[in-house]
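Anyone? Bumping this.
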Amino acid sequence: AQSVTQLDSQVPVFEEAPVELRCNYSSSVSVYLFWYVQYPNQGLQLLLKYLSGSTLVESINGFEAEFNKSQTSFHLRKPSVHISDTAEYFCAVTPRGAGGTSYGKLTFGQGTILTVHP
Amino acid sequence: DVKVTQSSRYLVKRTGEKVFLECVQDMDHENMFWYRQDPGLGLRLIYFSYDVKMKEKGDIPEGYSVSREKKERFSLILESASTNQTSMYLCASSWTGRAGGYTFGSGTRLTVV
């Protein structure tokens, strides 16, 4: 079984400041890792994912996350946030399937509410 | 783009009523999922289905059932709604054999009074 812990339930920051949202996971097998974002009154959208290869992955809107296998972490960072980044962010994992593919269910963390102040 | 459509954004039901939440996806995904989302608890899996007429319990199936008669449609049923089932319900779908994650619907906010 897998578990995901997001270490901060709420993160307030000022606009243009850097931010880090922390995610740790526990699993007895190798996993794929994801970050999802949920804007107010909407469903979740995939922000970025780590499947294999480079441990640093990036999104199109300036977020990045680094997979650290030894620390079982997948922290999300952005060097300069905007008001529009205000949302709830979820870290999630799923076990790697046979042949390196995944079809299994995602296990989510509790979510981190990022609030960007002007 | 894949679309996952949940039939209602907001629902208000009375205690004891039978409630149906509908979810339809248009990209031939094999897998479909129902989660509930509560503040501080994240998303918890209720049921999922990996094929037509196939279903498996998630982490919190008590008080719920599901139906998947067609590949594109996955229904969540509350047999006798209770106030502790007031929550946001999210449907998602995905392909088998591809590590792309889920596509989510917009959610249904259910209030049981």
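Late reply, but here is one note on the structure posted above: Chain B has one domain: 4-112.
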